[in-house]
Amino acid sequence: MAPTLPPSLPQSLPPAEPEAGPRPRVSARGRLRTYFLTGIIVSGPLAITIYLTWWFISLIDGWVKPLVPASYLPDHYLPFSIPGLGLVIAFVAVTLLGFLTANLVGRSVVEFGEVLLARTPVISGLYKGLRQIFETLFSANGTSFRTVGLVEFPVKGTWSVVFLSAPAAPDVQNALAPGGDHVGVFLPCAPNPTTGFFFYLPRADIVEIAMSVDDAAKLVMSAGVIQPDDPQARESQAKFHAMASTLRAAHGAPPKVDA
Questions:
Q1: CA torsion through residues 256, 257, 258, 259, sign
Q2: Per-residue pLDDT reduced to its tens digit, 39-64
Q3: Which candidate, 1, 8, 207, 227, has a CA 20 to 30 Å from the CA of 37?
Q4: For the chain, what is the largest distance between any 2 Cα atoms, rounded to a whole number of angstroms?
Q5: How confident is the model at residue 249 (pLDDT cuts 50, 70, 90)?
Q6: 207-209 and 148-152: which strand pairing?
Q7: How far is CA 37 from CA 27, 50, 255, in A?
Q8: Residue 186 phi/psi, 5° resolution?
């Protein structure tokens, strides 16, 4: 007769959990490759950002500092140069100019200067054109280059990203199609979106898309690699965290748990 278990004990025991296998060993070559890629991901964007920022500050300093008497610059009394001082001076000067222009006296001075420029050959046309461009781009109420669209370019069936500009002027509109609705579009070139093509198109031939100008610029500069709300970007970030976890595991550190 088979022995029976006491009533106080369960009739069946839970299966034993399998022991965790040994951690996969990471070779020295693989570890070195992971270190290098992690360093590139961390240092690359940081180095480029610092370089561009330093280049911009040095450019403004080179323009502004020669206009200020040396006796008014701290660099004249210190054994070293203060980077960014010209940028601060330019910011204060531009802000002060805007404040003075906003009142009656400032507007009178600006109008007097514009009259002198308008009577100067060559310079008058250049100044008027540049002023219109700046007023259009930096106006708080402007709508130019705030809408992204798609047009069939360069051939039928291929689509390019464009930025919508201002509607066609009456003279241009009448020359193209009287009573029509043409709008100017700017087609940026990859990877430099500051260059491209400008042309007029019927508004019906433009497919407006719900994409910000920043996302469209990133799309053009990366030649389509960086997509708006790109799942691939999230996957790359996950791979980066996985590489970091692999390094921590190789060194015996506990894995980091995201909050």
A1: negative
A2: 888 888 889 889 989 999 999 988 88
A3: 227
A4: 122
A5: low
A6: antiparallel
A7: 15, 20, 20
A8: -115, 120
pTM, to two decimals: 0.54
Which pair of structure tokens corresponds to residue 77? Answer: 């009394």
Q: What is the Cα–Cα distance from 182 to 176, expressed in whole angstroms?
A: 8
What number of other Cβ atoms are within 10 A of residue 85's Cβ?
18
CA distance to 42, 50, 147, per residue, from 185 (Å): 37, 33, 10
DSSP per position, 46-81? HHHHHHHHHHHHHHHHHHHGGGS-GGGSGGGTSSS-
Q: Please say whether the beta carbons of 195 and 132 come within 8 A.
A: no
Q: Minimal CA–CA distance to 62: which of 89, 23, 42? A: 89
Radius of gyration of the chain measured on its C-alpha atoms: 32
Any residues with CB less than 8 A from the CB of 85 and at least 6 apart, and which?
Answer: 61, 65, 73, 74, 75
Considering only residues 114 and 171, tell me which one the structure prediction assigns the higher pLDDT: 171
